[in-house]
Amino acid sequence: MGFPTTAGIIFQRKERPVRQFTLAVLLSCVGTLLAQEKSAAPAGKFSGLMFGDYYYNVQRDPNLGSQSNVATPGTTAVQGFQFRRIYLTYDNDIAEQFASRFRIEAEQGVNISNGKIGVVVRDAYLRWKNIFAGSDLIFGIQPPPTYDISDAFWGYRSLEKTLMDLRGIYAPRDIGVSLKGKLVPSGILNYWLMIGKNSVSSSVPSKYNRYSIHLHIRPSSNLLATIYADYNDRANRTDPFAVGAKVANGTTTFALFVGYTQPDLFSLGGEGFSSSTASGYTSPGARSLSALTSFGFSGWASLNLVSSVTAVGRFDYFDLNSNAHARATHGTILSVEFPGSRTRMSPSSRIFCTKHMRNRRGEQLSTPVSQRE
Question: Number of folded domains in the chain?
Answer without folding.
Answer: 1
